[in-house]
Amino acid sequence: MSRWLKRLKMMRISKYAIVICLLLSIVFAGFTVYGANTGNFNIYVQESDVSLAVYMKDDKSDLGAHLSVPTVEGMHDSTFTRLPQDITSHGTPEKGLGTKNDPYKYYLAFSVCVVNQSERAIDLITELTVSDSRDGEDGGKVIGAMRVALVEGDNPLDTAKIYALPEANEENQAELDAGLAEHGRYPSETIDFISTVQIFNETFKDIGAGEERKFTIVIWLEGCDAECKDAIFGAKMKMRLDFIGG
């Protein structure tokens, strides 16, 4: 009987948390770097002894070492099962590139192609970092509720690597598990953020000369997370995506 009562208690807690989150409006504005005030999410290529370029238009008219993606201001919370599983095919007609932000502000998403313009094969490092952040009006930190999915190629979203900050304690983990059990779990275990500054650092081996790789990034606020609460209202974060060849 005590086990059943405990289960009911967790279900009530998770529903209460979700209701609160659905009423939140989270400001996820200003994904900029180097003090630029463009209101965009910037993507850079770091050159070494190799030649890389990125583009987000089918005709490659924007091919270069720097791209910007519009951000979402006033982002609402969501969960993985509410995200479009075919999101890699959204965007431009031929390759499904470019900005894919949800018009209802439930997620930020974009797809970009990286081109190895070198005369040799390279290893490609893909790195997402936080360059600046501001706590919410009541001191909440948005990074605890943030989730990031990375998809390679034209694969569906359920093949993505999903990154998250580890839960602060067992109680928060139990609340998250209860919420996800009700709304649908992630397709696999999440990967811990490297730190509160570095989200992920992934290496893709043996990218051939002239070869292209498509990557899709999806960012959302996980409504089942205990950190997705009133305290993060008004929070802001600046982020940067780098592609580094070696």
End-to-end distance, in Å? 59 Å
- Uncertain residue segments: 1-38
- Secondary structural class: mainly beta
Rg over CA atoms, rounded to whole Å, is 19 Å
- Report the sheet with the most strands, covering strand number, pairing sense and barrel closure: 8 strands, mixed
Number of strand elements? 15
Could you list some keywords that capture this structure?
eight-stranded mixed β-sheet; 246 residues; mainly beta; disordered N terminus; 2 helices; 14% helix; five-stranded mixed β-sheet; 15 strands
Notes on the structure:
With 246 residues, the protein is mainly β. Helices cover 14% and strands 38% of the residues. It has two helices and 15 strands. It has helices at residues 2-22, 170-183, and strands at 26-28, 40-46, 52-55, 66-70, 72-75, 77-78, 98-99, 108-116, 122-134, 146-152, 161-164, 191-192, 198-207, 212-222, 236-245. Strands 3, 6, 7, 8, 10, 11, 12 and 14 form an eight-stranded mixed sheet that branches. Strands 4-2-15-9-13 form a five-stranded mixed sheet, with no helix packed on it. Helix 1 (2-22) crosses helix 2 (170-183). Mean pLDDT is 80; it is low at 1-38.
Concise overview:
Helices cover 14% and strands 38% of the residues.
Topology, element by element:
Elements: H1 2-22, E1 26-28, E2 40-46, E3 52-55, E4 66-70, E5 72-75, E6 77-78, E7 98-99, E8 108-116, E9 122-134, E10 146-152, E11 161-164, H2 170-183, E12 191-192, E13 198-207, E14 212-222, E15 236-245
Parallel strand pairs: 2-15, 6-14, 11-12
Antiparallel strand pairs: 1-5, 2-4, 3-8, 7-8, 8-14, 9-13, 9-15, 10-11, 10-14
Helix pairs in contact: 1-2
